[in-house]
Amino acid sequence: LNSISSAMIATLLHVCAVFGRVVPVTRNEEYLLTPNRNSFQFHHHRFGVAGQVQQRAATPSSANCTWLWFEQPLDHFANGIATTPSTFSQRVCINTDHLQANGAILFYTGNESPVEVYVNNTGLMWNLAQSLGAAVVFAEHRYFGQSIPSLRHIENCFGYLTSSQALADYIHLIDYLRTKTFSNPSMRVIAFGGSYGGMLSAWIRMKYPTVISGAIASSAPIWGFPLLEPQLDGAYRAVTEAASDATVENCANNIRAVWPLLSAVGEYEFGREAITSSLNLCETPNNASDVVQMIRSLQDTFFILSEGDYPFETNYISFAVEGTIIPLPAWPMRAACSHITNFNVNVTGNVSDVRFTVRKGQIEVQVDWDTFTANQITPQLLQSSGVLDLFSAMKDVVGTLLNLTGDTRCLNWRQSETRSVPSAAHSTSACLSQSVDPGTAWNVLVCNEGLNLVQYIVKGVGNDMFWPPSAPRNFTIQDVGIDHSLDFCNSLRQNIPGIPDADSLDPWARWEVLQYGNKDLSSFSNMFFANGQFDPWTAAGVSGKQKSDSIFVEVIAKGAHHLDLFFPTDSDPDEVKDVRKKQELAIRQWLEL
What we know:
Blueprint: H1 6-15, E1 31-33, E2 66-73, E3 87-95, E4 105-109, H2 116-119, H3 123-132, E5 135-139, H4 163-181, E6 189-194, H5 196-207, E7 214-218, H6 234-244, H7 251-265, H8 269-279, H9 288-307, H10 318-322, H11 332-337, E8 346-350, E9 355-360, E10 363-368, E11 371-374, H12 379-385, H13 387-402, E12 424-425, E13 430-431, H14 438-449, H15 488-492, H16 510-516, E14 527-532, E15 551-556, H17 574-591
Parallel strand pairs: 1-2, 4-5, 4-6, 6-7, 7-14, 14-15
Antiparallel strand pairs: 2-3, 3-5, 8-9, 9-10, 10-11, 12-13
Helix pairs in contact: 6-9, 7-13, 8-13, 9-13
């Protein structure tokens, strides 16, 4: 996919849900549950590592959990499985501090990260548990966190990583909790989730409506599959909205101007050296093609800034992307835009048709779709134009994310991710090692079932602040490489047993649409879809009024990725406060309270 780097693809969806407030996980009060074991009681003290009674945190977190290990089948859909071991232990957090008689279970359908990430950040569930008198349960997704099956010597060891298996895990766990733990087989359950977890919460309500009474599906891109025809540049429209609303004059316009100017200056060797100095690049681009690659790398940053454009300071995004506990500032897109406002850049013409002219000083670049022409640029003209100052400002713009620590030596625009891939014995199609990282596991999940979201595969076609366009003029969905968008699975298959062969890959996500449905939700009920105006995933989410009166759809003005699920803060926009109230009212309606 030309529109976004391969290193970012594996993190974008789950960036939203990878890390947050960094709270050490202590295995307080652990149990191993199996379907044959008697129910446990919540009367033990919670002991920390040192054996001291651990004090409750003012804000609920993993310290408030009773941690459980629940035995799950590796395969829920076969009568018997020859693989040994045929089960694995799933990590679960339970809290019953506010549970009242006949109270419900608020159940988080864990996604592609350690479960404590969601425990520590999903304040909506903790607050609703108190107001509704409910129990809270957070379940970890198979193959993520510590809920990884024993992979060594397992035939087709990654073939069991699918959303349908994960949903069956959750239903199996819920059944045990209701019948054994709470001794209430009819106990009501409301599913919660954000991002891929939001997809799971919607899907678990669709597939198991007799078990799940309702679902809060936040930033859930269930309409993002190719056959459902989302806006292919929808992600970057949202990013541009965030920059345009950043209360900084000319932010989006100045950013739009940077890309053609970089390309024009990058035609010259002295220009590429000047770009390297101004942007503090680790490596000087060798040619115009390298300049385009460098531009793409810079542009990726804005996706993350928009996705994480929260009104409060948090390391929810920065830890996931940069591995630092230093938080992004509140409203990070505004912070980024503040570096690029005081520039007199002139953009004229028809930007919607990608026929426009950029002028800065005596440098003029004329753009016509994916081509450009510029006047002759000399070192003297470049120095006097002010263009290098604009480039230096762009360094600070992307540094809002990429230089949070303030001591980043240089920008590595060629940076690629190295992932831990389990080795395999090709003759037996079995894993030889246990090691797997979340990025690899996510890619396997995408490959196994064609979980191919496409609302971000096009940009620069006239609806956003990016250039050059990643698709031809008057493109259709057939022109943007859908057929080859899962080709990376072929290289993964060389080391990861269980991934479908090339002929079985499903880039158009036909099976996802078959098993979970199309955009007609009239046969479903009791779901609440919330999306954020600034969230790049909103274009893949449910939109518009639905036929069912019990399906609610809200777009949160100035909202980022699943903002509604976070703990409330004083800086929250009124719009998200209103959505949280509506979510509680919907749940009370579903629970007949």
